Amino acid sequence: MLRAFFRAAFAAVVMLSSTAAFAQEGHGPAAPVAVGTLELSGGFARATLPNAPVGGAFVTITNKGATDDRLVSVSSPAADVGQIHDMSMEGDVMKMRQLPDGVVIPAGETVTLEPAGLHMMFMGLKQPFVEGQTVKITLTFEAAGRVDLDVPVLGAAADSAMHMDH
Predict the structure, then answer these.
(1) How buried is residue 33: exposed, middle or buried, by Cβ count under 10 Å (0-12/13-18/19+)?
(2) pTM as predicted
């Protein structure tokens, strides 16, 4: 019983150490990026399986301005196509749909693109999203314009850049 306790404690220390090292190597949450009146933070992508044709990326967008803006498109040199999607549950079925008109970022509010909700979908991946690497993505806003982000690739089950699943 005591041996199992120490084995679990050691595993927890190793996990915390590797997470801290990962963040210190520049793979943790990046500093917020400003574009126009928008602030983008917490960006990340999820690792994909080898030969997976699609990958997802996520970010939090805060509009510090007095007027609405709109995320109108996303792209990445790592994929043939980038789209803005919404995911929702209809009964027991998860539905995903493209948002061709983009997403409004209301003045003074925050919109979070996250797993199981609004997100960026990249199709026709040219290579897998590999945990520990970064992916370059470009977001284009109606008013603020374009911004490039290098987002860390976290584990396949990561739910935010602050809660890495190592």
Answers:
(1) middle
(2) 0.78
By C-alpha distance, which of 134, 161, 133, 129 is closest to 148? 134
Each residue's pLDDT expressed in tens, for the chain with a length of 166 residues: 433 333 333 333 233 333 333 333 444 556 899 999 999 999 999 999 988 999 999 999 999 999 999 999 999 999 999 999 998 888 888 889 999 999 999 999 999 999 989 999 999 999 999 999 999 999 999 999 999 999 999 998 887 765 444 3
Q: Which residues 6+ apart lie within 8 Å of 161 measured at CB? A: 28, 29, 30, 42, 43, 44, 58, 152, 154
Which residue carries 């009146």 as its tokens? 37
The two tokens of residue 85 are: 């999607």
CA distances from 138 to 35, 96, 142, 150 (A): 12, 22, 13, 9
156: left (phi over 0), alpha (psi -120 to 50) or beta: alpha
Cα diameter, the chain: 61
